[in-house]
Specification:
There is one protein chain. This protein is α+β, with helices and mostly antiparallel strands. 20% of the residues lie in helices and 31% in strands. The chain has two domains: 168 residues, Transcriptional Co-activator pc4, Chain A (Roll), CATH 2.30.31.10; 62 residues, SH3 type barrels (Roll). A hairpin with a 3-residue loop joins strand 9 and strand 10.
Length: 261
């Protein structure tokens, strides 16, 4: 049986919608798009830069499935792209255990039993599909599948259920994509022109507002809020939230986040 190359599935409620999109089986990622209904009754339009889009890797699909399969109560990750910071979370409702909450930045979508099972089956299928095709060599892909999807064909697949909701995923300049980078990864935080492995720290006054397993959301004395990776903070601070205290943070983080200014 030949597998589909692209997948789209919408999960809409009365005020919030979440759209799952996979543009090609040879790409090792998927997208989740969230939109809200405005007070005037119209839905946000991604074509106008409205809503929120995140890009999830194969590893993140596995972690999401671990929640959907009830191996974990919840899973969250921290996404960073340029100056935009987004936290995502998949979490079972603590009261009934049959409802799943998906939090993407300021967007929250509740999924019920049928929607949860549909998303679980879809992610399982797409993961297996992408492991087979997105991790193989180009020669293998060309041998197994001769299809060369044109730009217009890729654009057509995202038309449909709601006018203005879908947009070409491969036209990257027109889509605000949030790149996936968990705090454990070093690439977004690398110091430029660094010739030494010796860490240099500076002390600041701040309080903890939120926390993930890998990062802290700090409120600095000037009122600015910034996410910093725990790997760049000395572990001599109190984990209590809301209290002003000193943090020893690596200089390159302070410079990159513009915390001292």
């Amino acid at each position: 049986m030949q597998m589909a190359n692209k997948h789209n599935m919408s999960f809409f409620g009365q005020t919030t919608g979440m759209i799952f999109q996979s543009a090609a089986k040879t790409e090792p990622w998927i997208f989740f798009r969230c939109i809200k209904k405005k007070p005037n009754g119209n839905w946000e339009k991604p074509s106008k830069g409205e809503g929120k889009v995140i890009k999830c890797s194969l590893e993140e699909i596995i972690m999401i499935l671990s929640v959907l399969n009830k191996k974990k109560e919840s899973w969250s990750a921290y996404h960073s792209f340029k100056d935009m910071n987004t936290q995502i979370q998949f979490k079972w409702d603590e009261n009934d255990g049959e409802t799943l909450w998906v939090h993407i930045g300021n967007y929250s979508k509740m999924l019920k039993v049928s929607q949860i099972e549909l998303l679980r089956l879809l992610l399982t299928h797409v993961l297996n599909e992408k492991i087979e095709f997105a991790t193989s060599s180009k020669e293998t892909q060309d041998e197994n599948y001769k299809e060369k999807t044109s730009y217009n064909e890729q654009k057509e697949v995202l038309k449909g259920q709601k006018k203005g909701v879908y947009k070409d995923l491969n036209k990257r300049d027109s889509l605000k994509i949030i790149e996936t980078v968990e705090p454990s990864q070093s690439s977004p935080y690398k110091r430029k022109n660094s010739n030494t492995n010796k860490k240099q720290f500076n002390k600041i006054k701040a309080s903890i507002k939120r926390e993930t397993p890998k990062a802290l959301l700090l409120e600095v004395e000037n009122g600015k809020e910034v996410w910093v990776p725990k790997s760049g903070v000395k572990k001599d601070y109190s984990e209590e939230k809301g209290i002003s205290q000193s943090f020893d943070i690596e200089n390159w983080i302070l410079e990159k986040k513009n915390i001292l200014n």
